[in-house]
Each structure stands twice: as C-alpha cells, then as structure tokens.
Amino acid sequence: MPTLFKKIREVKNYITSLKCDGNKSIGFVPTMGYLHEGHRRLIRESKLQNDITIVSIYVNPLQFGPAEDFERYPRDLERDLSVCAEEGVDAVFAPTDEEMYPEKPLVRIEIEGLTDIMEGAFRPGHFSGVCTVVLKLFNIIRPDRAYFGEKDYQQLKVVQRLVKDLSIPVEIVPVPTVRDEDGLALSSRNTYLSPEERQSALALYMSFLLAEKLIRSGNRDPEQLVGAIRDFISRHEHVKRIDYVEIRDEELRPVKEVKEGDRILLAVWVGDTRLIDNWRVGDAQV
Ligand code: AMP
C-alpha cells in the first residue's frame, strides 16, 4: 500500500526525507480521484521515469463553477488507494478542503489568450482554480516531473505556459489520451452516463474520424469542418447542447487552413453530463 498523507506538513516532511536520501527523483500525478485506466497510464509513465511516484487525489473546489458538479463528482478513496497499490505508487496525498484552503485564496491566475478561450470561456474562473491548485501542489511536492493527460489538452497547455512564464522548476510530461475500445475517452465523469447516453457519447470520437476523412479528401477549411462536426454530433439522441467545437494549432492559436498536428477540441452536453475531448489531426488512418 502507498503511504497516505492528508496533511501538508506530513507530506512535506516525507519529501524532505526523500531529497536528503540521495536526492531521489520525484514524479507527480495530480488527479481528482476515481481513478481509471487514463490515470494508470500517467502513473506508469511516472514510474518509468522517476525513483518515487506520488499521486494527489483532491477534488479542487476552486475549479468548479457554482452551478457545476462539485458535489456530485464521484469519490472513492479506498478504491483509489488500491489502484495506486496495484500500480506501485509510493505515496498518495489526499488533503481535505480545510487543509488546502484554510482561507479562501484571493490570488487569480490568468494567461492571456489561453485561459479565456474554449473551456475558460464556458467555465469562467476554471483555469484560475486549476492554476492555483497545481502551483500549490507543486510547491508542496516539489516534483522533478509532473504528468498531465492530453485528454485535457487546454489544461496541459495552460500548465505548460504557467511553468514556462514563472520558471517553475518542474518538467511537464504530456501523456496521450486513453480511450475505451469503442473510442470513448476515459473520464471519471463517464460514470454519470446512462447506457443510452454512453452510446450517443461515441459521436464525439466518431466526429474526429469524420473530420479526418474530410481533411484527407481535401477539405482544409476550419469553418466547414467545424460545421460538419457540429451537424454530425447534434444529430445524435441525448445530445443536449454543444458548447464549442474548434480547430486550432498545437499551441491553441486559430488556424486559417487545417494541417497535420492541429487539434480539434470540443465540449458537448450529453444529457446532464458535460464531456470534453480533443483530437490531433493526422492520428487516424481513415
Ligand atoms: P482528473 O482526475 O480528471 O482531473 O485527471 C487527472 C489527470 O489525468 C489529468 O492530467 C488528466 O488529463 C488525466 N486524464 C484524465 N483522463 C485521461 C485519459 N482518458 N487519458 C489520459 N489522461 C487522462
């Protein structure tokens, strides 16, 4: 079993002892728990590259809007601890809200052109909350490397820019999205979906394949491609609303003509569940 820490002071002491003990390299995997195969992939990557792997499990209230799913977000620490044990995680940091935020943090982090688009436009304050918790966790854990999934591509780009602009001494390691056999990107939020909704949710993945086909047949116009993706997705039952579909370059800048390496990013409501997914153009042979 990994050692479980709930207190900042205790995990800090543990880290200090690791640093004194031959300066062990520390890999860090921040999560909100309810661990699945996607998280396991991050953990395995960290295990390969570091002496010690630490996982944090914390549903960060700062990154949820008032009308969002903070209360109903799935939580199961016991199960998460056994997943971590199976994967050979060394330590788990699972603080309470009082431990993390004895006072409401007043700091606000914004990254121009990055935290105000797509997820940031539809979830005001979301990335400020993400940046605050990530920076705080980095200061507590002081990792050599930290692992982030491409599943949350915009979050990955935000964290990379935060680290770059503030010279935070950590290497950010991106990990490709893990999907179910039928293509649905794994997410703790998939547990909200009924079997019928889950079937409709496949439209997200299928729309990426459709876009690949159109791109290969010579359509490189982002507006037309976005239109085709929207049409395709909205034809599916249970699809309540599309928040956005965008095609941007690798660094999330707008594009005039779509090329290999660009990203298709989207957020769609299936029933009462908001799903996000993204795709690197050129990743499917269709
Ligand atoms: P979460 O617990 O959803 O906040 O995710 C914690 C980390 O796992 C983030 O860096 C996510 O991007 C990553 N992650 C979540 N789902 C997946 C997935 N299906 N494939 C790869 N990484 C993922």
Attribute tags:
286 residues; alpha/beta; Rossmann fold; Pantoate--beta-alanine Ligase, Chain: A,domain 2; 3-stranded antiparallel beta sheet; 38% helix
Characterize the structure shown.
With 286 residues, this protein is an alpha/beta fold. It folds into two domains: 3-175, Rossmann fold (3-Layer(aba) Sandwich); 188-280, Pantoate-beta-alanine ligase, C-terminal domain (Pantoate--beta-alanine Ligase, Chain: A,domain 2). It has helices at residues 8-20, 37-49, 77-86, 97-100, 119-122, 126-141, 153-165, 195-216, 222-234, and strands at residues 3-5, 26-31, 52-57, 91-93, 145-149, 171-175, 239-248, 263-270, 273-280. It has a six-stranded parallel sheet with strand order 1-4-3-2-5-6, sandwiched between helices. A three-stranded antiparallel sheet has the order 7-8-9, covered by helices on one side. It is globular. The mean pLDDT is 97. The site of adenosine monophosphate has 17 residues, from helix 2 and strand 5.
